[in-house]
Design brief:
The chain has a two-stranded antiparallel sheet. It contains 8 helices and 2 strands, in the order βααααααααβ. The termini are close together. The longest helix has 19 residues, at 148-166. It has helices at residues 10-20, 76-80, 99-107, 109-123, 130-142, 148-166, 169-176, 189-203; strands at 6-7, 210-211. The relative contact order is 0.15. It is mostly helical.
């Protein structure tokens, strides 16, 4: 009750996004896995030269502690959130707050895919309107009721992106195609893309990645 708030560690930031979208595979043990990583990141890795190969299926959604660890080329998503290189003992990790972290959560395929799957779940809920769905997403991610101000801001975001994607369906299809898991075919592409924008925003909230 009296502990200070702090941002989750690098591995838990990703695991949290996967967990709230019900993508997380909580199997214990096994070989290292290779979640999404930008192509060409290992371009200067020699002896021998090699290229990171993204995993498939459940390998993409294992807990981050099982991510393959390459010294000097630490997984960029973990690096952005202050994961150590393991080249020396780290008694306590630093906790920075940088714009790069927000960019990772908005653009990394792992987080975009998690947001899209969460958006699918919201659209498939037996709810009456957008307000109820926004409340459901906020309750799922933050584990508390939504405030009126939050609902109003997110409803405006949804409305603007709905108009944008309805006028550019190709952009909507490109967004919801990100990730290994196929998008739900029964959902309208523009509607799903608009809701993905909302869930991406919620997953990027300070409160989402902070232990309160």
């Amino acid at each position: 009750a009296r502990q200070s708030r702090f941002r989750l560690d690098a591995e838990m930031v990703r695991d949290n996004a996967l967990a709230v979208s019900h993508l997380l595979v909580d199997e214990i043990g096994g070989e290292s896995v290779k979640p999404y990583q930008p192509p060409g990141y290992w371009a200067y890795l020699n002896f021998p030269q090699r290229e990171w190969q993204n995993g498939k299926g459940e390998q993409l959604y294992r807990r981050s502690v099982y991510t393959h660890w390459q010294r000097q080329y630490l997984h960029p998503s973990l690096l952005a959130f202050d994961a150590p290189s393991r080249e020396e003992c780290t008694a306590e990790r630093p906790r920075s707050n940088t714009p790069l972290q927000a960019l990772v959560m908005l653009n990394d395929p792992a987080y975009v895919e998690a947001a899209r799957v969460l958006a699918e779940a919201a659209l498939l809920q037996p709810l009456d309107d957008d307000i109820a769905r926004i409340g459901w997403v906020l309750g799922t991610v933050l584990n508390r009721p939504a405030t009126a101000v939050e609902v109003e801001v997110l409803a405006q975001l949804l409305s603007s992106h709905r108009v944008q994607y309805q006028s550019d369906v190709d952009a909507a299809r490109q967004l919801i195609a990100i990730g290994d898991k196929l998008a739900a075919q029964e959902l309208d592409a523009a509607e799903l893309a608009a809701w993905t924008s909302v869930t991406r925003t919620i997953l990027n909230l300070h409160e989402t990645i902070t232990r309160n």
